[in-house]
C-alpha cells in the first residue's frame, strides 16, 4: 500500500488542502514558506507514534474570520488515504494492517486514517460565551491560547472519519515513520555502541551471514541452533576474559576491601566483591564507528569527519534501523509493516554529486521494499534534475493560499503531450530546474535576454531579485512545452505568474509554394499577391491577452523584429550599446552620429561596410515603394539592421550588462567638467510593460 492523498484542514498554512502522493518517491519542492515542512509534519501527526501529537497555538491556520472563531472553536483535521500498490504482493500484511479502516471494499482497496485536534464538546458553550465580546482576531486567539488550549485533545480515527471510529493503537504501531530534519546534529547521536540506535542495528546484523541464508539452503531451526552455538562460544571466551581480569585485580581488590572495612561497609559479615559476565550486546558499547581509507594506513573516528559525510553514514544507519524494525522474524508481532522515510533538505549537508547518488540509492532501496514510501523536501535543482517529473510535487503560495502542482500530470495523454513531457524532462535533466522553485517565471528565447534583463529592470527602478523571479532561456520554438506546467486553466498545474518574452521575427513565403523564411521588417505586406506573411507574436498576444496567469510580450509594431534590434531602436541617441568587442564598432559609431546629425539616408547606406548581406539589404530598402515608411523610420531600420548584424546572439550580452551596470554608478550631472556622466539608456517599451505586469 501507499499514502495516496492527504487532506488537511486548519493546520498552519493549509486551511483547506488536498495533496496527492506517488507510490514511491515524492520530491516536494517550492519557494520559502510554501508549506513543505508543514506537509511532512502533517503526515507525521497521523502515523508517527514516536513524537508528540499535541499542537501549539501557532499550529492552527489563521485564515479563520473573527465570526468563524466565535461560532466554532478552531480544530485541525488531517486525513491520510491509503491505496493498494500496483506491485503489492498477494500475501502482504498491508491489508491486514488497515482492514479496520477500509472505505473501499474491493481488490483495489482504500483506507483512511484521520487525526483530529479539537476542543471537547463540553467546553463549547463556555468557549462561545468567552469569545462573544472579542472585537479582533488577535484578541480571540489570545483568549483561546490562555483559557482553552490546555483543554484541547486529539484522536485518531480509522475508516470513514464521520463515523468517529477510534483507530486501535496496535495497528498504528505498525507504521515506522523516520524523519531527518534539515538542522540536525548527527554527532549528538554518537557513532558508538552506547547509542541505542546503533546497538539495536548491531544486534540485528550480528551473525547476519547465518540469518540471511535462504531457507531452502538452511532451515530456520538450523539457523537458530547455529546462532545459539555461536553465542555459547562467545560466552565461554568472555568468561575466560572475566577470570583473567579478576586474577589481575586480586591484589588491588584486597586493598579496596581494606578501605571498605575501615569505613564500616563490612558490617553484618557483608563483603563487597567483583563478579560478572558480558554478552555481545553489552560489548557493543566498546565499539565505535571508524573510517578507514583504502590504500592508506589511516583510521579516524567517524565523529572527526565532516558533517556532510557523517550525515550520509547516519542516514545509512537509519535505513538499516528501518530494516531491523520491519523484520518479523527478529521482532515478531512488534515488527513494523509500513516504513516511511522523510528527509528535509538533504542538500543542507551534501555536495551536489552526493545528492544525486543518495537519491539514486533511496529509489533502489524503495524498489527492494526496505522503505515503502519516501518524502524529500528540497530547494536543490540537482535533486529535481535527478528525478522524474512524475516524482515532483510543487507547492506554491498563491496569495496566502497553498496550491499543489504536479508537473508529471500536466501533459495530455496523447502523442503531442508525451512529446512535450519528454522535452521538458530532458531540459530539466540537462539544466537547473529554477522555474519550479521561483515565485514567478520569465521565459526568454536566449542568453542575451537572460543576462541583460536583471540590469534592464534597474533602469526602470525595479530590482527583479526582490520578486523571486526565475529567468529561463528555452528557445522561441519551445515555449508551449513549458507553459503546460503553469497553465492555471488546466488541472494539476502550478499557477505561478508566467511572462514570456518572444521576438516578432517577421517571415514570408511564396504563395506558389515553399516554406516561410525571415524577411526585413519593411518587407511585410509589400507584395501580398506574391507572398504570405506571418510573425511569431501576434497570435500569442491574442491567445493569452486575458489569461489568468500567463502573458506574452514582444515587439508588436511594424518595425519589430528581435530583442537586439529593439535595443537599438530604443537607444539611437548615443553609443551606449557599443561595447569594446562589438564588430563594426567604428561603422556603427559613425551611423549613430550621422543619424543624430540628420544626415540623409543615402549617406548612411554608403557608410555600411560592403558585404553580400549589406548589398541585399540596401537593394531591398531602396526598392521600398511604401510611402507609409517615413525617412526617419527608414534610417532607424538601417541602424537596427547593422547593430543586429554586428552582435551574435548572446555573445555581446555579458559585456553590455557590465557596461550598463557601470553606467548606473555614474552621476547624472558632473561636478567637474572632466568627470564622466551617466549616458541615457532607454529600456524598450515592451520590456517595461512586461516587467511591470509580472512585478505587480
UniProtKB/TrEMBL annotation:
Chain ranges of the Endonuclease GajA/Old nuclease/RecF-like AAA domain: 1-383
OLD protein-like TOPRIM domain segment(s): 436-503
InterPro entries given in the database record: AAA_GajA/Old/RecF-like, Bact_Antivir_Def_Nuclease, P-loop_NTPase, TOPRIM_OLD
Protein name (Swiss-Prot/TrEMBL): AAA family ATPase
Record organism: Chryseobacterium cheonjiense
